[in-house]
Amino acid sequence: MIKHASIVPLIGGQTIAQQNIFGTRPDYLLTYSPFKNNDSHLVNYYNNEVPYIALDEGGKHPHYVDAISTTCPCAGLSALSPTASGSSAMNEWMFRSAEYVLGNIKPRVFWGENAPRLASKLGEPVVDRLRKIGKENGYTFSIFKTKSLVHGLSQVRERTFYFFWQGDKIPLLEYCNHSSNERIEDTIEMARRAAKDDPMSQILTSKKVPSQDPYYRYLLEEVHGGISHRKFAESLTRTANVLRSIEGAPGHDYMRVAAWMEKNGFSKLAERSKGMHLKLGMGGNIMRKQIEVPCDVIGAFVGHMPTMLTHHRHDRFLNVRECLSIMKMPLDFQLLNPSRNLNHICQNVPVTTAEHPARMVKMFLEDKLPLDDYADGFLIQDNVRQCISSGEASSLETFMA
Fold it and tell me: Is the Cβ–Cβ distance between 328 and 352 less than 8 Å?
């Protein structure tokens, strides 16, 4: 039986994926005090039965395990962060956790998940330091770049997994590429399998009615002749952002939107629409954090998406259970204090995305993967292109471009 644990698990998508593949709960969960609120949902999911230990509060791991996973914050390298850089203080959690795990527990595998920029020029200083930590403790290092879409999900979300392998060789991981993805409508519908009294199904991410939003009203009434939300959703062939849909409608621009806003008593939005028209006319860009109506696949479930993604049939925004289902969390998983912690769902890796690398870890532990020597104990695999590269970190940008 494989013994496993997690450090800085956050809400727990990767930990649950590891549990699904290994067939047992983690032996323990390690963390640092700044992440206790994020971890609380996973601790609650395990009914406080899995030991939960804060290392910066005097705690220590109970015993050796074969594999440890982590979901350290990715904000240091995230494309959504305006301060992202290889020297960001947020990256320190990757280093700190690696130093503790490799130097004290010494599992056969330590693996984590982070932003796709880890495998880019921006992430080069981070990769260099992680490799150094691994080498000092007797581990090789590899990167597996992928995206949730090729794992069969209905979400376009690129992610990077990184691995420390004990010894002087690196396993070649199998590639995973589903021929078709699950439609977002089906993902949302799966939430209906939760218990009838499920509290997560009773809480909407926003109590507003989508079709009453002024920009969406304009789209439904002026562009589409007064159709309903459901009829609009049924007409789609891909997920629609309301502002982009208006911009793509022949004969419609933000000056026309502004006139409609004035006529219907939305004077502030009329001025905003004029400003957007001017900005676009000058070659600039605008923020489009507006209502999204789902069809087939959606973009990454981050930012405005949890509170602005509608149901595909009903004129409402999603409930918390539907949001959890998009990240493939178990149907009995509870988000504590949803109104405050909704974004914790986003700070996560979809369970089924993490299951493939977890399966590769299991195969490594069972000696079922081919091992080889790569340049200086370093390997990059691109799961989307299904190709490999070995060599210095400076080759990352070219490889991943």
Answer: yes
Q: Tens-of-pLDDT digits for all 401 residues of the chain?
A: 999 999 999 999 999 999 999 999 999 999 999 999 999 999 999 999 999 999 999 999 999 999 999 998 765 444 444 454 445 677 899 999 999 999 999 999 999 999 887 877 777 889 999 999 999 999 999 999 999 999 999 998 888 999 999 999 999 999 998 877 899 999 999 999 999 999 999 999 999 999 999 999 999 999 999 999 999 999 999 999 999 999 999 999 999 999 999 999 999 999 999 999 999 999 999 999 999 999 999 999 999 999 999 999 999 999 999 999 999 999 999 999 999 999 999 999 999 999 999 999 999 999 999 999 887 889 999 999 999 875 443 343 333 33
DSSP assignment, residue 110? E
What does the domain layout of the chain look like in residue ranges?
A: 4-178+349-400, 204-318
Q: What's the sign of the alpha-carbon dihedral 36, 42, 44, 50?
A: negative
Identify which of 87, 108, 111 has the alpha carbon closest to the alpha carbon of residue 97.
Answer: 111
Q: What single DSSP character describes residue 309?
A: B
Contact 309, 298 (CB under 8 A): yes
> Which one is the CATH code of 4-178+349-400: 3.40.1280.10, 3.20.20.100, 3.40.50.150, 3.40.50.720?
3.40.50.150
